[in-house]
Amino acid sequence: GGWTAVFGGSPAAADAPGVAAWARARAALSAGDSAAAAREAGTLATLTPAWRTGPWAPLLALDGPRPVELAADAGTNRASVDPVPFAVAHHGWSARVDVAEQGWRYGITPIPATATPEQRAALWDAAAAVRAGTLAWAAGEEPWPAAAVTALDEAEKAAGLLRFAPPSVASVRSTLDGDAVLSFRPTANGVEALYIGEEKGKVVLLPASVYRDTESMLAALRLGQSAVASGDRLREVVLDPAMDVLLGVGRYIVVGPAPLGLLPVAAFPEQSDGVRFLASIRHVGYLPDLDALLPVTPPEVELTVTMLALVADPVEALAVRSVYPDATVLEGQAATVAAFKEKVGKARFLHLGGLPASADGGYLLADGALTLADIAASPIGADGVAVQGGSDTATLSGRVAALRRAGAREVFVEGWAGAPAVREAILLHYWEGVNRRYSASRSLSEARTLAIREVGDTAREPGSWAGYIVAGRP
After folding, report:
1. Is 124 helix (H, G, I), strand (E, B) or coil?
2. Tens of pLDDT, residues 90-106
3. CA 192 to the chain's CA centroid
4. From the CA atom positions of the chain, what is the Rg in Å?
């Protein structure tokens, strides 16, 4: 059928490279060789670029591997002696697709900022030609559009969209330094959790109830509640089955789509009594996919603006100016799209505060909407970025996705505001930590500790601080 179109070559050809790679992966799984299956899955993912989704999908409902067979592959793998290698390839490719589809929903194209207008136009034209050609082929009206597919390949390369294999077990572990990865992939009847430590790994099928418990816990925390019962259940279901991998690990990296990609691990009670929480003994970072684990050399940019802040709240402006007296603070009529675009590429630190949201989840400024696509296309080379996440998970995810596409490596996220005194203390002490060149994770941890010390009992409730997370390494 037409679903094979995205796997490279004509579906009519028995040796279409993507189809052949998937066939070899399935054969290796059946033989119990997860390592060989992982290598072939890596080949398949390389031949199946995740950006060919949304308006660039060659075929609509027929795009990608068929879900029934893919679910069967995952089940076969979980029963193998060492399921981790194939699961890493599977989670890596699945998360790539999730990130690409999320970008399209927010108007964020996968085209690199370095592409010229001519290259962008050529890429859109080539994608449209392949889409029309494959649809005509599926209807039996035209032969397979081999020339159009070749032209699309060339247009992608010219624009800087380069294919590369997903991370392997070895490449993921090479990035871990006392960390462990918790990757979540939705399935038809639950959630597949992949745990990767420096020496051990594990794959566990979690019950579908983790969705309900995660959403319930996040909702309770937003209301300022401790959510001890939900947190205790989630700790038992999500962390306890992998204690042989997680024992002694002080930093967790959570990967996956929302809501599990925002799993509030730091607010899990250490014990069921809820006296102490994991925030006191664990650092947690959140990444969109396994690719984000791999090191990237940032471009060299001259940063002449110490701090650029767009704010509507005097508390935020005061916190920023108290740490960075020479900050460029845009507020009121000075907070414009034009000013942001002029200065953002020169800013060493960036703070996007609680401004009104635009229709797509961006910001309404004095001269119009700063869209997520505008942010994603900005050359952000800042050493530290903070963002007010908005009123819901979708807005938060969209803003973080746009900032990461723009080049932000660590994003301090205010998912929701806690008690005013706690919020003021956390914002102030977070930027103090960043100014001392602490990592975002360490800055948040110390800000939380200082806020509890200064504010008292109000700050001890997880609802006051659990909304502050780091989209980046812990």
Report:
1. helix
2. 999 889 888 888 888 88
3. 17
4. 23
Give me the residue label for tokens 């920023």.
320
Residue 414 contacts residue 389 (beta carbons within 8 Å): yes
* Dihedral, 431, 435, 439, 442 alpha carbons, nearest 10: -60
pLDDT digits (tens, 9 = 90+) for 392-431: 888 888 899 999 989 898 999 999 887 889 988 999 999 9
Pairing of strands 190-196, 201-207: antiparallel
Distances, alpha carbon 466 to alpha carbons 143, 246, 352, in Å: 56, 21, 19
Q: Report pLDDT digits (tens) over 143-201.
A: 878 888 889 999 999 999 988 888 899 999 999 999 999 999 998 889 999 999 999 99
Alpha helices by DSSP H, listed for 139-269, are: 146-159, 169-175, 209-222, 228-234, 243-246
In 3-state terms the chain splits into helix, strand, coil percentages (rounded to 5) of 50, 15, 35
Q: How far apart are CA 81 and CA 103, in angstroms?
A: 36
Round to whole Å and give the CA distance between 223 and 232: 18
Contact call for residues 447 and 433 (beta carbons, < 8 A): yes
Helix (H, G, I), strand (E, B) or coil at 33: coil
213-233 exposure pattern, b = at least 16 Cβ within 10 A, e = fewer: bbbbbbebbbebebbbebbbb
Sign of torsion over alpha carbons 151, 157, 160, 166: positive
Q: b/e per residue, 410-434, with b = 16+ CB within 10 A? A: bbbbbbbbbbebbbbbbbbbbbbbb
Residue 276 has pLDDT above 60, yes or no: yes
Q: Beta strand 201-207 with 251-255: parallel, antiparallel or unpaired?
A: unpaired
Contact in structure between 427 and 316 (CB atoms under 8 Å) = yes
* Lateral strand order in the sheet of 179-187: 201-207, 190-196, 179-187, 251-255, 283-287
Hey, what are 391's tokens?
């009123």
What 3-state DSSP class applies to 313? coil
Whether 235 and 262 have beta carbons less than 8 Å apart is answered as no
Residue 45, both tokens: 């993912």
Structure tokens, 248: 């002694």
CA distance 366 to 370: 10
How far from 67 is each of 38, 84, 400, 461, CA to CA, in Å? 18, 20, 28, 42
Structure tokens at 124: 């859109």
Residue 456 banded pLDDT, cuts 50, 70, 90: confident
* Of 299, 242, 94, 88, residue with least CA distance to 174: 88
Q: What is the pLDDT of residue 62?
A: 41
d(CA 376, CA 364): 16
